[in-house]
Amino acid sequence: MDSDWLSIETRRLILRTLPPAALAALVAHDRAEASRLAGCRLDDFPDAALPLAAMRLQDLVTDLTYLPWSLRAMALKPDLTFVGYFNFHTKPGADYLKELAPGAVELGYSVMPNFHRQGLAQEAALGMMDWANRVHGVSRFVVSISPHNPASVAMARKLGFTQIGSHIDNEDGYEDILARSWPS
Q: The domain at 7-181 falls in which architecture?
């Protein structure tokens, strides 16, 4: 497996893959060790996202080839300040998307409150969709967003996502499912 996917760079961000050992350190509440292993500062990785880190670690135990699609730190250049995280929920072509968006991959992201309204989630999403298309030929992307999250809905619409369905998520409740093609 080549390593061109370890760090995806955009104009302001480095989207750094969190290897299994870094995810394990996060789950163990050892942010210093997680930072060392990831090569970027994870001091501010939110406690609320630790279950996500644990879930992605379990995904990697099951299938290490998921690593390029797994959890990444969104780190602001040049000092690699942690500003949020990004991940694809699965590798492309997941069974749960076959009916609504065959061959698609679902993305998820979160930006720390201090860095809201700076376009960082949009920049990360564009960078990661470009990588997935350029390197893996993925041309369809999905997001699931609560209609009660107007900032995420607005960003998705700005990026060209349109509603293709809805569902009830076990953790997040009702969500609209939006998709877009890449390139548009």
A: 3-Layer(aba) Sandwich (3.40)
